[in-house]
Amino acid sequence: MSERSGTLAGDPFDGRHPTSHERLAGQPWDASYEDGPPPWDIGRPQPAIVRVASEGGFSGAVLDAGCGTGENALHVASLGLTVLGVDVAETALAIARQKAGDRGIEVEFAAADAFKLERLRRRFQTVLDCGLFHTFDGDERPAYVASLASVTKPRGTLYVLCFSDEGPDTGPHPISRAELRAAFTPSTGWTVAAIEPDRIQTRLHDDGAPAWFATIKRL
Ligand SMILES: C[S@@+](CC[C@H](N)C(=O)[O-])C[C@H]1O[C@@H](n2cnc3c(N)ncnc32)[C@H](O)[C@@H]1O
């Protein structure tokens, strides 16, 4: 499942084109996980994901794109669903696998580039993006949205939990409703079912940061 084979030895980006976030940060995503948990890694699932899961919002095979250290994937898997979490950060994936073993939860974590999800050769009924979409600049979104479409079954559901631009105390990379609607259109294979105000908990915000919880359906 790993995409590491065939990539350049010693290349911190494993042959990937660095994302806008990585170019800005001057380091690959993996470095964020090397010195303890980064601000978004709160050691528990996001409350928004727990709520939607408790409402039966996850069904079929589930993909968590940009799973980090796996708290959301682990929560959904603990409910009995088949879950694959993918990320480019090997350190995060190692932590996620350790948690799965420690907690006795059956879940799969694999290295994969969210821009190349078709390489998984799998399709999912429910796809989760918790904090990944908002890290991509506008010019990266069409390729990411197409990649998501390539692995989502017809009438499947994509959930995007991202920072919103409606403050106060907005997180980094705030996204507007209009940007979400512009990214997921019928011409890209999607229709936006709902965009609701929500919160993303972080290690830096007492009560989380303003967020959108978007429910997006694959055509
Ligand atoms: C803000 S973090 C959110 C992590 C996790 N979803 C959570 O809620 O804790 C974004 C995650 O996306 C991953 N990521 C960034 N670009 C990626 C890409 N092109 N393919 C796969 N994962 C990526 C990062 O390594 C990081 O773990």
TrEMBL record:
Gene3D superfamilies (UniProt xref): Vaccinia Virus protein VP39 (3.40.50.150)
InterPro entries, A to Z: Methyltransf_25, SAM-dependent_MTases_sf, TPMT
Molecular function terms, GO-annotated: S-adenosylmethionine-dependent methyltransferase activity
Biased composition (Basic and acidic residues): 13-24
Domain Methyltransferase: 62-156
Pfam families, A to Z: Methyltransf_25
BP GO terms, sorted: methylation
Disordered: annotated segments: 1-37
Organism domain of life: Bacteria
Keywords on record: Methyltransferase, S-adenosyl-L-methionine, Transferase
Protein name from the UniProt record: Mg-protoporphyrin IX methyl transferase
Organism in which the protein naturally occurs: Luteitalea pratensis
Lineage: Bacteria, Pseudomonadati, Acidobacteriota, Vicinamibacteria, Vicinamibacterales
